[in-house]
Specification:
The protein is built from 5 helices and 5 strands; from the N terminus they run βααβαβαββα. With about 150 residues, the protein is of the alpha/beta class. It has a single domain, classed as 3-Layer(aba) Sandwich (Rossmann fold). Strands 2-1-3-4-5 form a 5-stranded parallel beta sheet, with helices on both faces. The radius of gyration is 14 Å and the shape is globular. The structure holds 1,3,4-trihydroxy-5-OXO-cyclohexanecarboxylic acid. It is an enzyme of class 4 (lyase). Catalyzes a trans-dehydration via an enolate intermediate. Keywords: Amino-acid biosynthesis, Aromatic amino acid biosynthesis, Lyase.
């Protein structure tokens, strides 16, 4: 199975960015962990980060021609604003898991709303870098039991 891991704006700064909220693990570390986990689960992992909404939309559209089976996405700040990312994900109808390092529900009010979450297969938030590996475990189980 092919999995796309998408990372939104400012996540390229992980490691030094607000460590109180996001920890000290870098994005490269997170991606490597997903790739290693993918190896043991028989998943081919592709990773992509962008600070630009349109580039994330393009990558989601491309997932169809790339035969991606599932998406793990941390939309970062676009979580709270982006109709475009929502529409792109709905257009592909590829199952996706929404991921956040921080628990967005214990933070500012404006972070409580997600434009994507009601279309997601699942959501993981609040476990730091571990949120991603939990999401990949969940997505793997979901795809293997729902896609024979
Ligand atoms: C985030 C939470 C968002 O509110 C924030 O804008 C981010 C990161 C998280 O992973 O906790 O950039 O998605």
């Amino acid at each position: 199975l092919r999995i796309l891991a998408l990372h939104g704006p400012n996540l390229n700064l992980l490691g030094t960015r607000e460590p109180g909220h996001y920890g000290t693990t870098t994005l490269a570390d997170i991606n490597q962990k997903l790739i290693d986990m993918g190896d043991s689960l028989g998943l081919e992992i592709t990773t992509f980060q962008s600070n630009h909404e349109g580039e994330l939309v393009d990558r989601i559209q491309q997932a169809v021609s790339d035969h991606i089976d599932g998406i793990v996405i941390n939309p970062a700040a676009y979580t709270h604003t982006s109709v475009a990312l929502r529409d792109a994900l709905l257009a592909t109808s590829i199952p996706f898991i929404e991921v956040h390092l921080s628990n967005i529900h214990r933070r500012e009010e404006f972070r409580h709303r997600s434009m994507l979450v009601d279309a997601a297969t699942g959501v993981v938030a609040g476990f730091g870098a571990t949120s991603y590996t939990l999401a990949l475990t969940g997505l793997n189980d979901f795809l293997r039991t729902n896609q024979q």
